[in-house]
Write a structure and sequence with these properties.
- The protein is 70% helix and 3% strand.
- It has 534 residues and is an all-alpha fold.
- The chain starts with 5 loop residues before the first helix and ends in a 15-residue tail after the last helix.
- The protein is built from 17 helices and four strands.
């Protein structure tokens, strides 16, 4: 395979540049606002379904274009497939469904992303699908909130597929980088007593180079998200925070995502992966449908095989259980906070865009500060230092956010009673989230066997995505029952505390021994868990 070129690296960087604004601006800010506002414009009063939500007979309160003031919140519901749900719940249920679809799509196409010559094609095709679905929000009328939910599901599922393809490129680009190829000496005797040192140097350089390329991609993606967030905030501010201005902002995100597929297509090489294993390959002369099914089946089989291995490794299972809960809680906090700020604090869309900017900035700060400075200081306070203490520290920091929201039940002056509190908590949340992602990936990498990083991190990603189905759904149910989204903070606080209990059973040293033991086992040809045993 040809060495990685600098132009190809730029092609991969454009992948992050193109799609990162979708998560920060569209999913993280504007789509929840749009769905809630559309639900409200089509909703009715919770206590009298004959009165439209935006009726002139609303309870008097601070003037606002279609949104309740913080003093006298107007509780509204909307018809959703025959059932009346809280207007805030529409966005929560939509994102819960979108993550479910995204998870199914990601698993189904992961085999084709790793094997064969489809990686680049899938990346671009799904990006085009996602970007067009995002841009189509501009054409959604106020009455078509079902169509808006469908577009949110479609675009988010496409983003998940793009992420899988993009991540699959990273190890390929690293392994074929000139710095790595220069370390391979065809005349060297790798069976000698110095072979372990040579292998260690090789792995150290690969980790350094992977971190450098990955970190550059993350930074470029954050920069793009920042630029798009500022531009869309200006557009919404100029448009008066109307429904059309929010749709225009989402449309801009979709166009950005679509336009920057051009440099990706021009600069990124195809980089075909290895063929499917013999037992997974379709029969000669098989139709395209059977070939597609072969790749889909391989993706699911690989996930099941990795899950089986993880289940046999006690500390990997403990970590994934904790990650499942904390990832769900962290993701749901973001969605719930945006909807709370919109419905309970009557914050404008530009103000919520500023919150998104604060989360990005503080997230970058947390990702750098916590592992480099806070984690070493924590280690000095314990007889047996462990990176797990850093994760627990970050979870405690993040749990203050829902706890502060609960405070509002008992205190009238603080506890998310004023918009300015949201700005402070946004910075607090971003700082914790940046450190959480960094430390969790680092700890998980210590627990997995060498040579199986891709399959185990695929399970890590599926656990992350799959968990995000539950939190928004339960949050939506709580909001439907109480018609007060503040009650969801009790649930979110419990979700943040539970992983601390689980992590107390995690033993990094024991987990590393389990991984080393698995590395020494020569893998046989894997059985197909989708085929019946004979």
């Amino acid at each position: 395979m040809e060495p990685t070129k600098q132009s190809e690296l730029w092609g991969w960087y454009f992948y992050a540049w193109a799609c990162e604004p979708f998560i920060v601006s569209a999913v993280g800010t504007y789509v929840p606002i749009l769905l809630e506002q559309m639900a409200r414009e089509n909703g009715v009063k919770v206590d009298d379904h004959s009165i439209p939500c935006l009726s002139d007979r609303q309870v008097p309160g601070p003037p606002s274009p279609g949104f309740p003031g913080p003093e006298e919140p107007s509780k509204c519901v909307v018809n959703f497939f025959g059932a009346y749900i809280d207007t805030s719940s529409l966005a929560l249920y939509t994102f819960s469904l979108s993550v479910l679809v995204q998870t199914l799509v990601v698993i189904s196409m992961s085999g084709a992303a790793d094997r064969g010559h489809f990686r680049k094609k899938l990346l671009i095709v799904f990006a085009i699908i996602g970007s067009i679905a995002t841009a189509l929000f501009w054409f959604v009328s106020a009455k078509r909130y079902y169509f808006a939910s469908l577009l949110a599901v479609l675009s988010n599922a496409a983003f998940g597929a793009v992420s899988v393809c993009g991540n699959a490129y990273l190890p390929v680009l690293v392994n074929n980088h000139p710095d790595m190829l220069g370390m391979v000496d065809p005349e060297a005797n790798y069976e000698s007593e110095d072979s372990s040192l040579l292998i260690k140097d090789h792995e150290t350089e690969r980790a350094r180079l992977s971190g450098k390329i990955s970190g550059t991609g993350v930074a470029i993606g954050y920069l793009a998200a920042l630029l798009v967030q500022i531009a869309t905030m200006v557009v919404i501010k100029a448009g008066g925070s109307t429904l059309n201005s929010i749709k225009t902002a989402i449309f801009m995100v979709g166009v950005w995502w679509l336009v920057f597929q051009v440099p990706i297509a021009a600069l990124l090489e195809s980089r075909p992966g290895p063929p499917l294993p013999p037992h997974s390959q379709p029969k000669s002369g098989a139709s395209k449908g059977r070939m597609v099914w072969s790749y889909v089946k391989f993706g699911w089989r690989t996930l099941f095989a990795t899950f089986h291995e993880a289940r046999e490794m006690k500390d990997v299972a403990i970590f994934l259980a904790a990650w499942f809960v904390v990832s769900d809680a962290a993701t749901t906090i973001n969605s719930a906070a945006v909807l709370f700020a919109r419905t309970e604090l009557d914050m404008s869309a530009p103000s919520l865009a500023i919150i998104g900017i604060l989360v990005v900035f503080s997230g970058m700060t947390g990702a750098i500060t916590i592992p480099r400075y806070i984690q070493p200081r924590l280690d000095r306070y314990f007889d047996s230092p462990s990176p797990v203490f850093g994760i627990i520290f970050v979870i405690v920091v993040a749990s203050i956010i829902p706890l502060y929201g609960i405070l509002g039940f008992f205190v009238q002056s603080i506890g998310l009673r004023h918009p300015w509190e949201m700005f402070l908590l946004a910075a607090w949340y971003g700082f914790a989230l940046g450190g959480l992602n960094t430390l969790c990936r680092s700890v998980f990498s210590m627990l997995i066997p060498t040579g199986k990083e891709t399959t185990f991190f695929a399970l890590f990603a599926v656990t992350d995505k799959g968990s995000s189905i539950i939190g928004p759904a339960i949050t939506g149910l709580i909001t439907d029952k109480t018609h007060n989204i503040r009650y969801t903070f009790y649930f979110l606080f419990g979700m943040m505390i539970l992983p601390i209990v689980i992590l107390n059973f995690l033993d990094i040293d024991r987990g590393r021994r389990e991984a080393l033991a698995l590395e020494r086992v020569e893998p046989d040809e894997p059985d197909d868990p989708l085929e019946p045993s004979l």
